[in-house]
Amino acid sequence: MKKLATLAAGLSLATALIGVSCSVHANTTAAVGQPAPAFSARDTAGRTVSLADFKGKTVVLEWVNPGCPYVQKHYRSANMQGTQREATGQGVVWLAVNSTAVDHGDYLAPGALADWMKAQRAAASATLMDPDGKVGRAYGARTTPHMYVIDAKGTLVYAGAIDSKPTASVSDIAGATNHVKAALAETLAGKPVTVPLTRAYGCSVKYPSGA
Amino acid sequence: MSCSLLLPAARRRLAFAATWAPALAACALALAAPAGAAGAGAVVTTPQVRAELVAHAPEGVVPGKPLQLGLLIEHQPHWHTYWKNPGDSGLPTTLAFTLPAGFSTGEIRWPTPARLPIGPLMNFGYEGRLLLPVAVQVPASFSGESLEVKLRADWLVCKDVCIPEGGDFSLQLPARAATAGHAEAFAAAEAAAPRPAAGAKAQAEIKEGALQVRISGLPAAWQGRDLQLFPETAGVLNNAAPVQGRWESGQWSAAIPIDAQRSAGPETMPVVLTAAGQPSGLEVTVQVTAPWPPLAQAPQAATGTAGSAALAGPAGTAAPAPAEPIGLALALVAALAGGLLLNLMPCVFPVLSLKIIGFTRHAEDRRSLLAGGLAYTAGVVVSFVALAGLLLALRAGGEQIGWGFQLQSPAVVAALAVLFTLIGLNLAGVFEFGSVLPSRIAAAQARHPLVDSALTGVLAVAVASPCTAPFMAASLGVAMMLPTHEALAIFAALGLGMALPYLAASAWPRLARMLPRPGPWMANFKALMAFPMFATVVWLTWVLGQQTSIDGAAALLGLLVAVAFGAWALGSPTLGRGARRGFSAAALALLAAALVWAVPSWRQDAVAAMPGTSGAVAGQEADRWQPWSAERVAQLTAEGRPVFVDFTAAWCVTCQFNKRTTLNQPEVVAAFERKRVVLLRADWTRRDAAIAAELARMQRSGVPVYALYSPGAAGPRLLSEILSVGEVTAALAELPD
């Protein structure tokens, strides 16, 4: 009996560990009007930050990549920093997320990314590292920048672009509508967001390839 | 870097032209690639592209005669620019011509694009040589000697990084001489442009989160081919999802998934169709017949449900609401309790009886009993942790799987069926293990009873994995979200809980002594235990049949016969040497033949079933339950219908139990009908990334999960894993009428 158990156990562990093929397709699970997907990631200081930490607060997620000209457009013009400052000044939690794969040329180590954010005088509450793209995929983040607003009850109320003019020129910022500011104003006043979805523009998020 | 200002002369804009910044901003971007001389020539060269303003005026610039202008872009290898709908990211090239008064330009005649996948995203664009032609109307009043054309073009060129570039071009065209230096490029661009499909009728309706497109009247050469569809409207469809089209009596139909974050709801959608072997595409305008659902369900106040129901387990504590992960300590305690309950689950019980046989042999020797118990515990805990580690590693690798993933692969199910057949045959006395292995190894095993105990623990874990006891679900869901070491601690607690009864009995032999003494009854008991083994094989064969087809299940049975024959030939104690040799050879040949027959019928791509519709339910059930999709749930709740989703799998015993008992009770069926609840079934028998992602969102990693969505609530209410009629009817009673 014991000998059979040995063989059985060995076989069963072997069979239980048979590998599965990698499925490539990314699935968007976040949808506006639905609860925002939970996530947990390390920030540039090494602390673990979870969405659940901010229960009861409005949260903004900003997908960032310093190497992307569209992110640079909003940072060099101080548009993004201004939006961040206005938001955090009203008690909103602003999380910048970087989902660039480690082997991509745009990848910045946590320290370097933190330095860049500091040099830009960013007012984000935390900058999260998402090198395996888990958080990005859960939210369907496609571009940098890609913006999401989550209300205090945990529902995703806005997903899309930072503003209404999809170009790389700083001069277009002044004439464009800042969708994040508008969504935050309505959410903090308890009103439904009138423009809940727009098409995000920018460079593609540099997810790890083959995964 | 071009630092020129846009000229103030009268300009004609094209429909998608966006004004690019004046020089200051462009300079400040400080990127590589000077965008060319300030309005000096017809060519702008950057490290990524060579762009040239070209013209085609075979009869000169004369009113009424054709004139075409265009931007000829030659991309460096692997660099690309974008189509009018760039896809998930990127921006289309824009052309802003400056021409004398009276001239009018048409839209860019975009050549048929190519799909440019980048990781999990999809873009549409061009590589290599590209000409973007624009038709120009020469006014009757034109009478100059030459025409001066100025162009401001901007494009986004990307490889793995993106560089917005642009340039100012100018060109002089002689009015009375032909300009046809690029005739070949213009002809190629004309050939590459999608042709309008005359006589084609295209309609679409929105169903189950996909755009169900039907196109008829396509040219004969296109019939029966694999088509690809490029939407000209951005922000509507899921660009990366593969599209499976079907041809039926001249009509092509496909269900194209809609973008979960759709930002537009157009009534007509022009699309470009391409087919392998056809030189260019067809342009078809799709009429969307049904109105689009609202873009976003307006967030409403939560209806104050706790989001959970009391569980049927002995402790009776409530499971956590989906949005509140339980603390680590509570999770560990819950995991321990869950492991204990695992011993009672239907798929563990046969192995439990194996353990009992082991006890009765060692009841006298207290120390070895305890040592065996500890070894078993170690085996169980280590294998739980190892499986969890593998799960987390695979999950980190981007795999969409959850607990129970082993049984989603036909090969694994088949291997387990072979294993249980062998165990059953040995228990029934068909062969003796001692004569299968060489005597040296058989003796070595006897010398290490501790190793045997440990490996018995491993066997128990392999068998238990698909069954999730009530407490396990929440713990597993939490564990997936936590850092690795905390997740592994939870799995270790699960293992400890599962091994506790065995360990307790081995530590206090009084418990073991309560078991009957060894005697002739043991041979009968051993043979009796063969039958639960065979029953498990029946269940595994059914699971394999659900995953593949009846042919796959029959192939497995054939393989089992071959294996049984082999085991008898090699291990029967009563065969003579010559007979053994002869039968063994025959058995080997039979086994090889069975494998050759069986393996192809289990392969993933041999299965025609679509995810979410495999595991078909027989009879009237099929009419009541519809396939699940996240978009369908959103659509139904937006319409005000309550939705009940049954996340199930063929290999999940608890799921099948609930399906056949509680969910089939007439009172439950009546309650569903009274409240007009739509019943959706998410079948996870085979790997399905959408279902796995949805489970992760609800902080579960295994099935069953029963989710009740009431219109107006923020999230689903999750019911307990062992459903009772009372629980379901009580939850339904709370729904608005």
CATH topology of chain A: Glutaredoxin
Could you describe the largest sheet of chain A, including whether it forms a barrel? Answer: 7 strands, mixed
Structural class of chain B: alpha+beta
**Secondary structure: helix percent of chain B:** 25-40%
Report on this structure.
The complex is a heterodimer of chains A (211) and B (737). By secondary structure, chain A is α+β, with helices and mostly antiparallel strands. Chain A is 28% helix and 17% strand. Chain A has helices at 2-16, 69-76, 79-89, 110-119, 134-139, 179-188, and strands at residues 40-43, 48-50, 59-63, 93-98, 126-129, 143-144, 147-150, 156-160, 203-204. In chain A, the strands form two sheets. Chain A has a seven-stranded mixed β-sheet. Chain A has a two-stranded antiparallel ribbon with strand order 6-9. In chain A, a hairpin with a 4-residue loop joins strand 1 and strand 2. The longest helix of chain A has 15 residues, at 2-16. With 737 residues, chain B is of the alpha+beta class. Chain B folds into four domains: 11-193, no CATH class; 196-288, Immunoglobulin-like, CATH 2.60.40; 328-406 and 437-518, no CATH class; 621-733, Glutaredoxin (3-Layer(aba) Sandwich). Helices cover 39% and strands 21% of the residues of chain B. The longest helix of chain B is centred in the middle third of the chain and has 31 residues, at 366-396. The chains are: A alpha+beta (211), B alpha+beta (737). At the A-B interface, helix 1, helix 2, strand 8 and strand 9 of A face helix 1, strand 12, helix 4, helix 5 and helix 6 of B.
Compact overview of the structure:
The complex is a heterodimer of chains A (211) and B (737). Chain A has 6 helices and 9 strands, in the order αβββααβαβαβββαβ.
